[in-house]
Amino acid sequence: MTERYNDDMQNERIELLKDYLKRLGKGEALEAVRADFVQNFKDVDASEIMQAEQQMIQEGTPITEVQKLCDVHSALFHGETREEKIANAEKAVDASLIRQERAVKTKLLVEEKGHPLYTFTMENEALAVYIEQAGAAIAKGEVSQELVDHIREVAIHYAKKGDLLYPHLKVGYQISGPSDVMWTVDDEIRDELAALSKKPAHDKEWLQRFDAVVTRVDEMIYKEQNILFPNCAVNFTEDEWIHIYHDAKDYADCLGVTPAIWEKAENAVKTIESTISDQEIVMPGGHMNVAQLTALLNTIPMEITFVDADNINRFFNEGPKDFKRPGMAIDREVFTCHPPKVEAQVRRIIDEFRNGTLDEVPIWMEKNGKSMLVKYMAVRDKNQNYLGTLELVQNMDFAKEYFTKK
Asked: Which of 193, 216, 251, 283 lies 20 to 30 Å from 292 when distance is taken between CA atoms?
């Protein structure tokens, strides 16, 4: 689909360039042709213009004719002197070649079956189909709850993106734009879809709001495919992608897409070395080895996270989680794991723990249809020195059911 679109765009540009040559051949003023060129090609990479001209030559357009276009597209490269214009043109070509290299690398990963970008793109293509159906349904004024529910599954897609891509771009490669801007938009889209889903009456106002949020979903697809994914493609290493692939297994399938197996990641040897795995860990209350301690922590029916005194994620217990904790987040600052609108609240709680003005914060919430208790607790030594923050997440449906029956 993307290749066909790109081919159509290239053919359209070639036809425009041919038209400019015809107009010059008929004696039209150069400035008039240049003005139209700038209008139509101002957002086109210089290397793409060069490729279009090369294709014209291959199709039989005389080189002397194509050379006339130099006077036309020089309008794109500003400068007072000829040398400045040449220098600016060279810079533009270099920059566009870099962008093209990025596009090529992105394309390779998007087409590699099972790769995380392959799965993300498959989800976007499935989402695009639902968006098209939504457009037709909105026009008729009849949007089914089933269609709304399908589109709402984008929340899982956004959760994966928010946990696995945004923080790593920001922390590992100092690319903060996506996490600072796109993450907030993701949350707004998810919240609006949830709000609309709760309204049984699909009146005119509802349809207008649904149309607006679906448009934002469509725009986000474009931003992911053309901004986020290329940034990830040119920066993340293969080893990082393998970790992302395995972390993504903790998320539910969405939008009708079952992630394909990425053979390269499945065949990669995953080893976790521990120099003290066979040694005893002695504590005031007893002693055990690492295997026993790990099994004990994984048996506790809670999601456990420990953040140290420097705000670094140090430990997550294993097992299914409602609050996903990707392995790549270990040794990363805890604040980078939260969207901007939540980060300020997390900082405030930890600051109060550190200052000794607060010891714990319980938060009750509904998540994924479950009644959850999230407890943040200050961890202190026997001298009351702050060592870090403990987060405990527990599904309280069992208690709710028990006390409801009594």
From this structure: 251
